[in-house]
TrEMBL record:
Location of the Glycoside hydrolase family 2 catalytic domain: 166-288
Organism: Mucilaginibacter gynuensis
Taxonomic lineage from the root: Bacteria, Pseudomonadati, Bacteroidota, Sphingobacteriia, Sphingobacteriales
Organism superkingdom: Bacteria
Pfam entry (one): Glyco_hydro_2_C
Keyword Transferase tagged: no
Region of interest (Disordered), residue spans: 140-160
Protein name per the record: Glycoside hydrolase family 2 catalytic domain-containing protein
Keyword Cell inner membrane part of the UniProt annotation: no
Stretches that traverse the bilayer: none
Keywords: Signal
Signal sequence residues: 1-22
């Protein structure tokens, strides 16, 4: 699709989310959304939000990160220390309902332990609840080993890749409500990201009702932190409208080159709310630190790249370009550090430090 057509679709979407869809979406997802003034006052209290999507290099997915047997505070501490060293102040971290279901109290303790470590490194956290990406059948227990040279071979959806039914909602509501009530006034948490890329994995509008429900559950708790669900694809008009009209702060994903990305920023600013890009930086798609991070800082848009340390998720490899021999790609797709703390690019790290006044 050419750029002009993409922009036309995106522009039409943004008009719809502020007018035609507003009443419909508010009807299906009731709750007290933050005013524009409150959202912008909150945003002004933070220095430029900059960081990465984080999972320790020792974990292949969210379950391995959060289950009791594989929770790894030593690695988390070491790797967040590297993040602090280059000026990162925010990490986006995925939770998982199965880890909570297996051990609610232990899960919440581990979340608290993670927050203590992050706070020691002057890092706030964006927590993510649901996720429609990658493998369809998450299971408790020992997680698989990475597939050689394959991007995110073990990442798991939450809930599983089925059409979530109303009968499933009470258990999911209990999970979301319990976690939110436990941490709803915790200043170490920057924002709640309720649903990552709803409709992905060919789910489409099958995710609409769960997205609506999680906004409703979160509003009922009324956390002190803002809530959001990030826009990620411009052709999902129903989902996009629901996300945009119910988010306190507008979050979004963009792995495109800077000319396209800048136009997206300009259009999203029509909502009048703070913007945080919660996923960007795919080097071989011409979304890099060098061409995008300065743009986002100039526009006062939060910048959260994917990811931090090259580990078991294999995200140094591109989405659709596996390397079966496991050779290291000449140009990494994502990530900043190696597992030993060395950086992929000193030039990139120097830029990140400069942007963060480090």
């Amino acid at each position: 699709m050419n750029l002009l057509k993409k922009l036309t679709i995106a522009g039409a979407l943004l008009v719809s989310t502020t007018s035609l869809w507003a009443q419909k979406v508010e009807d299906v997802a009731p709750g007290k959304r933050w005013s524009i003034e409150k959202a912008n006052t909150w945003y002004a209290q933070h220095k430029w939000i900059n960081g990465a999507n984080f999972i320790p290099s020792s974990a292949i997915n969210q379950l391995e990160m959060w289950q009791a047997d594989t929770f790894d505070p030593t690695t988390i501490d070491r790797e967040l220390g590297w993040a602090e060293g280059i000026g990162f102040n925010t990490m986006r971290v995925f939770l998982h309902s199965i880890a909570w279901k297996e051990d609610p109290q232990g899960f919440k303790k581990r979340v608290g332990d993670y927050l203590t470590i992050a706070d020691k490194h002057h890092i706030q956290t964006i927590f993510v609840f649901f996720d429609d990406c990658w493998n369809a059948t998450p299971k408790a227990g020992k997680q698989p080993e990475p597939k050689t040279g394959t991007h995110n071979s073990g990442w798991v959806q939450d809930p599983a890749n089925i059409e979530t039914k109303p009968a499933d909602y009470p258990a999911l509501q209990k999970y979301v409500t319990d976690v939110l009530n436990t941490f709803k006034n915790d200043k170490r948490i920057l924002l709640w990201d309720l649903y990552n890329e709803p409709g992905n994995s060919n789910k489409g509008n099958k995710s609409f009702d769960l997205l609506k429900q999680v906004f409703t559950w979160a509003r009922a708790v009324n956390p002190s932190q803002p809530i959001s669900a990030g826009l990620w694809t411009w052709d999902a008009s129903d989902l996009n409208a629901l996300q945009a009209i119910n988010s306190d702060v507008i979050t979004y994903h963009d792995y495109e080159a800077p000319d396209w990305h800048k136009r997206v920023v300009k259009m999203l600013k029509s909502h009048g709310r703070p913007l945080i890009c919660t996923e960007y930086m795919a080097r071989t798609r011409n979304s890099t630190f060098a061409n995008t991070a300065p743009l986002l800082k100039e526009e006062n848009v939060g910048a959260i790249n994917w990811g931090l340390v090259a580990g078991k998720t294999n995200t140094m490899y591109a989405w659709d370009t596996p390397m079966p021999d496991g050779a290291e790609p000449k140009v990494w797709f994502h990530d900043v550090f190696r597992k030993n703390g060395e950086v992929f690019s000193q030039e990139e790290v120097d830029l990140i430090k400069k942007l963060n006044n480090k």
